[in-house]
Amino acid sequence: MIQSLLIANRGEIACRIIRTAREMGIRTVAVYSDADTKALHVREADEAVHIGPSPARESYLVGDKIIAAAKATGAEAIHPGYGFLSENAAFAQAVIDAGLIWVGPKPASITAMGLKDAAKKLMADAGVPVTPGYMGENQDPAFLAEQAADIGYPVLIKAVAGGGGKGMRKVDSAADFADALASCQREAAASFGNDHVLIEKYILTPRHIEVQVFGDTHGNVVHLFERDCSLQRRHQKVIEEAPAPGMDEATRAELCAAAVRAAKAVDYVGAGTIEFIADASEGLRADRIWFMEMNTRLQVEHPVTEEITGVDLVEWQLRVASGEPIPLTQDELAIDGWAMEARLYAEDPATGFLPSTGSLDLFQLPDHIGRVDTGVYEGAEVSPFYDPMIAKLIAHGEDRDEARELLSEMLEDSAIWPVRTNARFLIRALDHPDFAAGAVDTGLIGRDGEAMSAAPEPSPQALTKAAMAMVPASPHAGLRLNAPPVRTAPFLLDGKRVDVTLHGPGADNPAPAMLVAETGAVWQLTPWRAKGGAGDGAGDGDILAPMPGKVIAVDVAAGDRVARGQKLLTLEAMKMEHGLTAPFDGVVAELNVAAGAQVQVEALLVRVEPEA
């Protein structure tokens, strides 16, 4: 058995791996960048090694630094977690060549499944059904446009080296193809160093269903049933569950058998996921489910599989990497109940899901129900350099309704401030009648996401309770015979004045601020006079940087006339592109940035003024 393990990752997954390693008596080594000096995974590991500056390309993506850290600390093995170098075959080979144990699949398996086009050809040869599309080498834009037309719109452009929803664009018409292709290729090159794409038919009623597989060095491959990851926003998974709603035993058996064939076709070792897309227009049918890709690593959503099978997948990874066979046979694996997982992100749905950074002055998650996997703590900093996921909340119940209701309760019990989160958005998604009924497809949020994303508002009762705590009754209230029993007092809430009903006279010196927590959201209430009125804010036409980032494209020039909703520029931050648009019809009165510029949060980028 491995005795010492370096985790080549950060955040939640690093902490999760450390937890299992500790239970197995394995010494752990963390690596960290400048931004993660005080991170939770650094605190929890037995030893930690600094590997460079905050940008991932200078730290977590530098394989040589990670291998050097393993050698310097005497670590026997390296676990890559997910993301970063987890599916980098060259890094896996370098780990092996350095005489270390790689906790993952063989480099050849990663290579075989790393490019979506080659993987689909391989799967077709192995008898695994694949989605119709173009997977060739010709990357000429005009040729790709012809292929898209032959396939028939809508189509999906996907980076062949992609993952996590990056380098992926849905295109509804030929007129939109060129722009979507250029954007997809640019994002793919930035994220994966490879701008090649494939094109496949876009399924109009799609379900995203994946199967957890596991192989060992003794020739055994098993599946641990399926997960449904259909609730997505812009191809990013939001809520995952296991098993898949509406899955009958015959379809499950055929789907899972195809997943095992896929894993065996690449001589797979360790934890992996075979992802399928299903046309659910007539329910789940085996003849309408196709292979999409394989993730040759541990998935973010692996806890739901653990919850329904009772298996610790990280323990299995470490045992198999040590040369042991898979601990259970296929016949010994069974589904017990239902599990759901919600990804809690530091982002604000009300502002287009822009990432939210800063100090977690308040960070409270439920510790009495369900399971919480996190990589942060109260007082920690949410950095702009990495993915904004700060926790995963996992619920297990006897059936789907029980798991869904428990997960909603967990989210309602969360309280985080001043960093914004998507907790309230997740609660609304869980409560959506189609999701509650199990009638979910990948387009649900695209159709109804506006209502789910609306800024939450505290109830009058919550505001009154907070205001009464801020403005307690005066000790001389009894002497004020003419004081009204009820009065209205002005407060500032999210930059706007609200009038709150108070009972009885108040003290002369109210508390300067009070946090109001309700149903997964937190607000700050302050006395109106503390701000001197409406407060100082940017003009309605001032386009400020919502976070630190890099301007990668500017679409207007000073003096240009623009229409409401027209894209002005594109900002890259937290590994995602964010388009900033004109708030109304007008003229670009001021342009302060050019492509390539690095900007800080709230920097004035563009000023739009109404036409005279």
What does this structure look like?
With 612 residues, this protein is an alpha+beta fold. It has five domains: 4-103, 3-Layer(aba) Sandwich (Rossmann fold); 132-201, ATP-grasp fold, A domain (Dna Ligase, domain 1, 2-Layer Sandwich), CATH 3.30.1490; 209-453, 2-Layer Sandwich (D-amino Acid Aminotransferase, Chain A, domain 1); 460-531, no CATH class; 542-609, OB fold (Dihydrolipoamide Acetyltransferase, E2P), CATH 2.40.50.100. It is globular and about 75 Å long. 48% of the residues are buried. The model is unreliable at 476-481 and 530-538 (pLDDT under 50).
Provide a compact summary of the structure.
By secondary structure, this protein is of the alpha+beta class. Helices cover 27% and strands 31% of the residues.
